TrEMBL record:
Belongs to the UPF0213 family. This is GIY-YIG nuclease family protein. It comes from the Bacteria. Pfam families: GIY-YIG. PANTHER family: BSL5627 PROTEIN, UPF0213 PROTEIN YHBQ. Residues 5-81 form the GIY-YIG domain.
Length: 83
């Protein structure tokens, strides 16, 4: 069976005005659940970024990764209008 790939860039937050995290995935519902449950060790688990506050779907993973890099390279101030 073929796996369905739906590339997305997303932002997780710890709380209102809290820590934010930008990521990219091919399966947004699964990845958001992993962050919520704290299954994956790393930044989002350490800073409790469990709330999906923004996402953007892409037609291919390459464009999603480029967008993720663009967002990660920007300041917090530039990310806040998205959420």
């Amino acid at each position: 069976m073929r796996r369905i790939v739906e590339p997305a860039v997303y932002i997780m937050a710890s709380k209102r005005n809290g820590t934010i995290y930008v990521g990219v995935t091919s399966n947004l519902p699964q990845r958001a659940g992993q962050h919520r449950e704290g299954i994956i060790d790393g930044f989002t688990k350490r800073y409790r970024c469990k709330l999906l506050v923004w996402f953007e779907m892409h037609g291919d993973m390459e464009s999603a990764i480029l967008r993720e890099k663009q967002l990660k390279g920007g300041s917090r101030k530039k990310k806040l209008p998205l959420i």
